[in-house]
Design a protein that fits this description.
The protein has about 350 residues and is α/β, with parallel strands linked by helices. It has 2 domains: about 240 residues, Type I PLP-dependent aspartate aminotransferase-like (Major domain) (Aspartate Aminotransferase, domain 2, 3-Layer(aba) Sandwich); about 110 residues, Aspartate Aminotransferase, domain 1 (Alpha-Beta Complex), CATH 3.90.1150.10. It is built from 12 helices and 12 strands. The strands form 3 sheets. The chain has a 7-stranded mixed β-sheet with strand order 1-9-8-5-4-2-3, sandwiched between helices. Strand 4, helix 6 and strand 5 form a beta-alpha-beta unit. The longest helix is centred in the C-terminal third of the chain and has 19 residues. Bound molecules: pyridoxal-5'-phosphate (PLP). Pyridoxal-5'-phosphate (PLP) binds next to helix 3 and helix 4.
Length: about 350
């Protein structure tokens, strides 16, 4: 399923940090952020943190989402997308998804906005790397006065309407967890459309500390209390090495996605894919829908093929969210995510497709 390909150059970069006399948050993290700011990477004003979950939470704080309000999240996502809303003392409302893309269903979002007066934000997820309707979310945000945050944990290398993800007007949160396309181990970043918000996030990620007025008698000020969310230079060194090879790895992921789609087209396997040709998945995962999923998964397993279930619907978990999401529930019973990582060969993908074809025949 996963195999993080760690660049050997990370050893040299790590040695540099470990021998430098400074291994905490410092110049290497800053350099990592500068390189991330390239629009081919994540763009905007990136703030490096210690997880994608921290990035999502910081996004809600810096966007001034009011505590005690409600936040809409799709039912088909990792638990972090919703747990940060609770952490921010908000209520979670689950939106249903589209079966074709696995992404948040805009009609479901609108229905919630029309009936729940206390909604202040929507966290949308680009499921498996497939872009959700960013323009539609932007319209809803203007019409209803709600904040939109994008969970981009899967979306590095994705494009929407032929454009890089960074051209979205919203705050975006990325994860560099061990299984993600830019694997640092633990880490993430949150990107803002403006420098002022990014500066505030840089204080809040380290307990709110402001070194601006530092003097002999005053180590720091804390104008606003924050969290212990900062990345450090050890992780940033690995991140910089991973960025060097990112474009090659993304190209490999896209060629794997193409191969799966070519080989599975016309079979009983239902591909989950972009709504429009101008959108492109970065290839974090390859979700497909099948009948009799448990049997198919067991047969794949006995042919030496690992697979994953992304995701159990959030209604299953103790989040206090009670709204029914029938499409997400059905999707979760039918979905299989197939192996994808840059070390897989196209022959191996063909092997997976052949076995899968036999299972569903
Ligand atoms: C991985 C993931 C996260 C959280 O990332 P961490 O770095 O593990 O905190 C958030 N949302 C989604 C959809 C994810 O897959």
């Amino acid at each position: 399923m996963y195999r993080p390909q760690v660049e050997t150059s990370s050893l040299d970069r790590l040695r540099g940090v470990l021998e430098s006399g400074w291994i905490g948050l410092g110049p290497v993290t800053e350099q990592f952020e500068q390189e991330l700011a390239n629009s081919d990477m994540v763009g905007k004003y990136p703030v490096a943190v210690n997880s994608g979950t921290a990035a999502l939470h910081l996004a809600l704080v810096v966007a001034n989402v009011p505590k005690g309000s409600a936040i809409i999240v799709p039912a088909n996502t990792f638990v972090s997308t919703a747990s940060v809303a609770l952490q921010h003392q908000c209520r979670v409302i689950l939106a249903d998804i589209e079966r074709a893309t696995g992404n948040i269903d805009m009609a479901s979002v609108r229905e919630i906005l029309d009936t729940e007066p206390d909604v202040s934000a929507v966290i949308a997820v680009h499921y498996s790397g497939i872009p959700c309707d960013i323009a539609g979310l932007n319209e809803l945000s203007k019409e209803y006065g709600v904040t939109v945050v994008e969970d981009c944990a899967h979306a590095i290398g994705s494009r929407w309407q032929g454009r890089p993800m960074s051209e979205s007007p919203h705050i975006q949160a990325y994860s560099f967890h061990a299984t993600k396309s830019l694997a640092v181990g633990e880490g993430g970043c949150v990107t803002f459309p403006d420098a002022v918000s990014a500066e505030r996030a840089k204080r809040l990620r380290r307990l709110g500390i402001d070194m601006g007025a530092r003097s002999w008698g005053n180590p720091y000020d804390i104008p606003e209390l924050g969290f212990k969310y900062n990345m450090g230079d050890i992780a940033a060194a690995v991140g910089l090495a991973q960025l060097e090879a990112l474009q090659d790895k993304l190209r490999k992921r896209r060629s794997i996605v193409r191969r799966y789609r070519e080989r599975l087209a016309g079979s009983p396997v239902e591909l989950v894919r972009e709504a429009d040709d101008s959108d492109r998945s970065g290839g974090f995962a390859v979700p497909v829908l099948v009948k009799d999923r448990e049997r198919v998964r067991i047969e794949l397993d006995s042919a030496g093929i690992e697979s994953e279930i992304y995701f159990r619907p959030l209604g299953d978990f103790p989040l206090g969210a009670t709204r029914h999401t029938p499409v997400a529930e059905r999707f979760s019973r039918d979905v299989i995510c197939l192996p994808i990582h840059p070390l897989l060969s196209l022959d191996e993908i063909d092997y997976v497709c052949d076995r899968l074809g036999e299972c569903v025949a």
